[in-house]
Amino acid sequence: MKILIVEDDPRYAKGLQMAFQDWPVRWCRSLDSALKALAAREPFSLVLLDLGLPDGDGAELLKWIRTYSDIPVLILTGRDEEEVILESYRHQADDFLVKPVRLPVLKAKVSRILERNSILRIPGCRLNLELGILETEGQSFSLTETQAAILQPLFEMSGKTVSADRIRRSILSRTSFDMSANTISARISDLRKMLREAGLTLSGTRQTGYRIVSQ
Length: 215
Prior knowledge:
This protein has helices spanning 10-19, 31-39, 58-65, 82-90, 103-116, 145-157, 164-175, 181-197; strands at residues 3-6, 25-28, 46-49, 52-53, 56-57, 73-77, 95-98, 119-122, 125-128, 133-136, 139-142, 200-205, 209-214. By secondary structure, the protein is of the alpha/beta class. Strand 9 (125-128) and strand 10 form a beta hairpin. It is elongated and about 50 Å long.
């Protein structure tokens, strides 16, 4: 797991780096440097994002991230206006904290977000994204990074339809590879065989979207 800290205050950024020293951390102090780090497809598991950056609004970075990735984003800012908070959630921020924040609270929030995004469940099955394992009663299946990326939004939606584009973004976020629609369809076709053994049905098409249900 790797955390991206987007914060222009060096002292505050150093405190965050010390707080999360058990994880690999990348610090960016501007919107431009953060965009470059994310565009390079580094495998970040979480973004801690300040909104007041010297070269732009951090909200623009959040909107840009959501065009290609479901990576968790926790807003950490001195702004506390209701409009700003609601706008952040509208652009799919995972959480919002106003500075100053107590480190135990921040670490608890981060741990909860990472846990929520690494262990996903539907009736009878558990998807461990960190280990790349699909577990059912009495069975365990090893997954490739692409297979785990396909299953992540399907488990998150739990029986509801997931668009082909969202699956594409999940693959791009986890593997840094922008697969073609035909390649994704082929990977899904291969995955269906494993899922049948696990007692799951993956239905749908590229045009209609996909959903996963227990048999």
